[in-house]
Structure formats: structure tokens, C-alpha cells
Design a protein that fits this description.
The protein is mainly beta. It has one helix and nine strands; from the N terminus they run βββαββββββ. Strands 1, 2, 3, 4 and 9 form a five-stranded antiparallel beta sheet that branches. A four-stranded antiparallel beta sheet has the order 5-8-7-6, with no helix packed on it.
Length: 140
């Protein structure tokens, strides 16, 4: 039985409330992680506790246990000239923003003017309830 500290492999499919799939491991290698180590969203981490090898279940994870609520204050205007010149920016386009420590953060363009682009720094899944179908492949 899975407990905090277990190293496990799972297959999963993540869907939004409208049924749209946003991520899945099916057809790929299973996701491998240590339960309770903070490697995944807390709702997923908690959902597998108590499951057994071969067991399947579907869980609904609220935003607070996933990527948080959407925060209106997490928008930023940047000069259009600071963007790569290869493509014209468009509303809805996702850009990777580098943090000082080299981490990549996905941001979404929400407004484009002749001089500026406004980006949303919220995670793309912030504010969304996520549904996961989880199948335990292996408990190490």
C-alpha cells in the first residue's frame, strides 16, 4: 500500500471540467515519483496514498490543491521590442520566461499593442479544477 515516502510509477490522464485532456502519460513511460516529496501538485500526491499496485481511481482536484487560484495581479506589461523577432506576438500565445535561477515559467499573452505586450504570469491551469484518472503501475 502506498504511503508517504513510497517510490511509485503511475499512468494518468488529466482532464478539465469540460472533458478536455490537458496531459497524459498513456503511450509513454509511466510517471515516477516519491510520494510526499513535493514533486507534484499536492492533490495528486495525496490522492495516491493508500492505493495498491494495479489499482485505478479518478480524483477531482480543486485549484487550491493544484496550481492555485487565478490571481488578477499577476500580469505584466513588457516592451514589444524585448520579445523574439521571429514571430509577431498574438493574444493566447504562450511564451517561456526565464527566471534569474534559469527556471522556465510559461506565460500567456493577454493583450498586444503596437508598443507593449501584456502577459499573464499565472500558471495556465491556475483557477481550474483538474480531474485525474490514476493507475498504479509499480510500487518500489
Amino acid at each position: 500500500m502506498i504511503q508517504k515516502g513510497s517510490k511509485i510509477k503511475v499512468h494518468y490522464t488529466g482532464t478539465l471540467e469540460d472533458g478536455a485532456v490537458f496531459d497524459s502519460s498513456e503511450g509513454n513511460e509511466p510517471l515516477e515519483f516519491e510520494v510526499g516529496a513535493g514533486q507534484l501538485i499536492s492533490g495528486f500526491d495525496t490522492a495516491v496514498i493508500g492505493m495498491k499496485q494495479g489499482e485505478e481511481k479518478t480524483v477531482k482536484i480543486p485549484p487550491e490543491q493544484a496550481y492555485g487560484n487565478h490571481e488578477e495581479g499577476l500580469t505584466k506589461k513588457i516592451p514589444r521590442e524585448s520579445l523574439p523577432k521571429e514571430r509577431d506576438p498574438e493574444v493566447g500565445m504562450v511564451l517561456g520566461l526565464s527566471t534569474p535561477d534559469g527556471q522556465q515559467i510559461p506565460t500567456r499573452i493577454i493583450e498586444v499593442t503596437p508598443t507593449d505586450v501584456t502577459i499573464d504570469l499565472n500558471h495556465p491551469l491556475a483557477g481550474k479544477t483538474l480531474n485525474f484518472k490514476i493507475r498504479i503501475v509499480e510500487i518500489a
